[in-house]
Specification:
about 325 residues, 10 strands, five-stranded mixed beta sheet, alpha/beta, 9 helices, Nucleotidyltransferase, domain 5, globular
């Protein structure tokens, strides 16, 4: 039995799992940041402190428990993320584990996104290529197995999700605005505004979105139509993501594609992923929209994978939060 906690940014999430199976889960999304046009770290960490204890109680009660007695392992995101937010979930989970005499696992947030696909009836066939695309990260990984996940490349500046949110904010769709921009794009003409495709070479497994944001800003200031601009922007981003992903699948002989992170909720990305993978006979693993964004189920499944390999595994209580990950080989155990 695993109690998993996720507080890497502005969502407070808790899940109770038996192995990889979710028994109960809750997510609290902080709305205070919308009026500020972005996540305010201090407000985020304070909100986690207020919300987390009650959310844990709700999840335990939903799972038929009234204490931590029946829990075997507590797991929490150690990083990367906002340090202040991470420290809340990490400190609470370590303290609870120590007080209850339970083991603790610190989890890598990037790996956790991929591990949302772990332990399911439909199993990943390796080798695979994974696209992790969210508000803070845009990366491609080669997966030879669940134990060998190698970074191919990442964004050199903004993440795709950040570009979506900032473009939505710029065009008056609010923050966070990825979902609102997706809806606006459905009504627009993607051919109306030709936009630059930075670092468009498919063989280069890296991304850049800052120049694209600037091009959108200039068009908006000249009076561009919101829906047409949103549609043009969305298609440009999706084309960049898909072209680089499919190139890596071809050269690496991939049998499966894994996609994870908040941007995988985007309707066009999901549609094109299904189409391109079907055309190439690639097994596609897409999270449902509910589990595309930050959630505790993915943290719990990452913990379950660690325990499957080593039932006695634990992280020391000295495990600390880290804001960035700079490795080349991705492990579910939290480490910078």
């Amino acid at each position: 039995m695993i109690l998993a906690v996720e507080t890497s940014c502005d969502d407070t999430a808790v899940a109770l799992l038996e192995g990889c199976h979710a028994i109960a889960e809750r997510v609290h999304s902080q709305e205070v940041h919308s009026k500020h046009g972005g996540v305010v770290p201090e407000l985020a960490s304070r909100s986690h402190m207020e919300i987390l204890p009650g959310l844990v109680n709700d999840v335990l009660l939903a799972g038929g428990m009234d204490s931590l007695e029946g829990i075997d392992v507590l797991a929490a995101t150690a990083g990367p993320g906002l340090t202040g937010s991470l420290l809340v979930g990490l400190a609470w989970s370590k303290a609870a584990a120590w007080a209850a005499g339970k083991r603790f696992l610190g989890i890598n947030h990037l790996a956790a996104h991929l591990y949302i696909h772990y332990g399911q009836e439909h199993q990943v066939v390796f080798p695979a290529v994974a696209l992790l695309v969210s508000g803070g990260h845009t990366s491609l990984f080669r997966m030879n197995s669940w134990q060998e996940i190698l970074l191919l490349g990442s964004t050199r500046d903004d993440a795709a999700g950040e570009a979506f949110d900032k473009t939505a904010k710029l065009t008056g769709l609010g923050y966070p605005g990825g979902a609102a921009l997706d809806i606006a794009a459905d009504k627009g003409n993607p051919d109306r505004y030709p936009l630059p495709s930075p670092m468009a070479d498919p063989s280069l497994p890296e991304f850049s979105f800052s120049g694209l944001k600037t091009a959108v800003k200039l068009l908006w200031e000249k009076g561009a139509d919101r829906s047409d601009l949103a549609a043009s922007f969305r298609r440009t981003v999706v084309d960049l993501l898909i072209s680089k992903l499919m190139y890596q699948c071809e050269v690496l002989g991939a049998k499966s594609v894994l996609s994870a992170g908040g941007v995988t909720a985007n309707s066009l990305l999901r549609e094109v992923l299904r189409k391109e993978c079907s055309a190439r006979n690639l097994e596609l693993f897409l999270p449902d929209k509910e589990h595309s964004t930050d959630n505790a189920l993915m943290v719990g499944r990452a913990a379950a994978a660690i325990l499957d390999r080593n039932p006695e595994a634990f992280s020391p209580l000295s495990c600390n939060a880290f804001a960035r990950w700079s490795g080349r080989s991705l492990s579910p155990i939290g480490s910078p």
